[in-house]
Every structure is written in structure tokens, then in C-alpha cells.
Amino acid sequence: MKSKVFTKATIAMAMAATLMMGAGCGAKGAAPAGGSSDAAAKGGTVTITNVSYDPTRELYAAYNEEFKKHYKEETGTDVEIIQSHGGSGGQARSVVEGAEADVVTLALAHDITLVEQAGLIDSGWISEFDRDSSPYTSTIVFLVRKGNEKDIHDWDDLIKDGVGVISPDPKSSGAACWNFLAAWHYADLMTGGDEAQIKDFMAKLYANVVVMDSGARGATTTFVENGQGDVLVSWENEAIATAAEYPGEYEIVSPSISILAQPSVAVVDENAKKNGTEQVAHDYLAWLYSDEAQNIIGEYGYRPSDDKALQKYADKFDLNMELCTINDFGGWDNAYEVYFKDGGVFDEIYGG
Predict the structure, then answer these.
(1) What is the CATH number of domain 140-260+321-350?
(2) pTM of the entire structure?
């Protein structure tokens, strides 16, 4: 039974690698030299590449199929969508370094800002789509094995002796950054804002991290497939999917305080211009806000940005959790500078 997580993740990564190699060998070939594939492909086929973060594999597999049907009906054009998945920070760096991407759908706004700073995305991208270009949200929860032997209920339980924590690396994973900030906010409130005590709390927490994978899906595999650790600090959607796939084997624990995690989307303008895919790339992201897509989002355990759709799937989520936001940390630019850049707070408390 447990081989499912390993198999799905391994196959998805192999497919993504194969597809990305294909992209480098001319997968955009629907466009004639100097022409526009959007314009040329009426009645034909246009290919776009979506570079995304780890746990969205299943979501976009479902979304892509529905978008292709929608776009064919609306325009007469067939769309092929190449997917690439990995730790969000690593994915952003791969685009900066030349990986093909017509759109990016990453775990946090700062990763898209890195691509913008490389000159590949136009400024103001965060206002191009509704709700700060976040068509869905999530939060951070705990996943424990059935019975919760270590009696884990809140963040302070993660620093107890003998508790093995699984959480990915903030240097490469967007989920890991959200994990860190949620824990920091809890410690901030518990200590009355005493920075020395907060850092001591965080140092104890990360001393209990027994495996630090590069991405959230790798962390899930470590916990579920490899059986390591007592608690997985997880995207809510990833925890929901795991609990559903292994009924009776895992429990989701909502901490008293977490964070509103806002994955972001953007057209990679320079690549889309070069590939002649600007219109379809924009439409691909815009349709995430449609009623049909918001239902897919809810079905796959993400919190729809549309309030009506969110309420439809409310039984999946703990909507009573107290959630801080990235604004409590001065926005992503400030949070990255303070906590995650080389020599920042994470390196300090982790002994980097």
C-alpha cells in the first residue's frame, strides 16, 4: 500500500524530466520562425510549460485536462501542457538559469520575484490576477501516524526530547519557508516577542528535524514511504491527500496557530514572448479563477480563493485555525532578507 506515494512521486519526476528535455529540443515547434504560436495554432496545437512546486502534481494533472477541453471549445486550438515539479526555490532558480517556462506556479511570491529580478517577468505581476495572483491558498498542519503516540498537538510538542520531525529545507523549498514562519509566529506569541527565546525555540525545533528534504513531496515520501520521523510538518493539501490515500493510517493535527500560505502564479513574459504563447499562457492562469477550476482546487485539498467555493469544500479544512500572514513579517522581500538569505536567521539557528 505504501508504495503508492513513492511510485507516484517517482513517475511524476521522471515524466517531468523527460518532458523538460523535450522542451529543450523544440517542443514549442508549433510556432514558425519569427511567428506566433498563438496566432499560428488556430485549429492546430500550441505547447506551454508550467514550472511548479512539489505537491501540485496531481492538481495540475487534473486541471490541465479540463483546461485543454475548455480552450479547444473556446478557440479551436489544442493545447499541450508540459509540467515540471520540484522544490519551489529550486524551480525558480532553474527558470532564472534558462529552464523553459511560459508560466510559473510557485509556492510563494518571493520565488516569482527572483524570476522577475532576472528580467524574465514584468514588474507588477502580482496584480495581474485576482487576490495577489493567488488563485488558491493553503496552510501548514501536522501529519502524524494513527494513534499519535508522541501526543503531538501544537508547535511546542515538536521541541520535546525524542520527537522526530520531518520538514524540508527552507533554502530550496517554499513549504519549508512557510513552516519556519508559522513556527516563528507561534514562538513569538508564546514568548512575548523575546527574540532570544524565539531563536532558542526554533533551534530546538530544527535540532529535532531528522531529515530535511529539498522539497515538500520528498518530505512526504520520507515520512510515509520510508517511515521516518514522528510528525510531518506539511502543506494542508498534502496532508489531506495522504490521509485520504491511506485511510486509518494517519491523522491531521491542526496547530493552534499557523500561517495563510499564498502560492503565486505568473506568466514568464520574456519566454512567452519568445515562444509566441503570451495569450494562451495568460488564459491558462486566468482560468484557475473559473468556477470549474475552483472546484478542482477544492477537490484536491487546496483552499479556493473564491469564498463560495471555499465554503463548498469547508469540511476538508479547519477554518477555525488562527492564521498569521506574510504581512506580519513585513512582506516576502523583508522575510527573505531576515530569515532565509545566506547568513540570515535560519542559518544562525541551524548552525550554518
Answers:
(1) 3.40.190.10
(2) 0.87
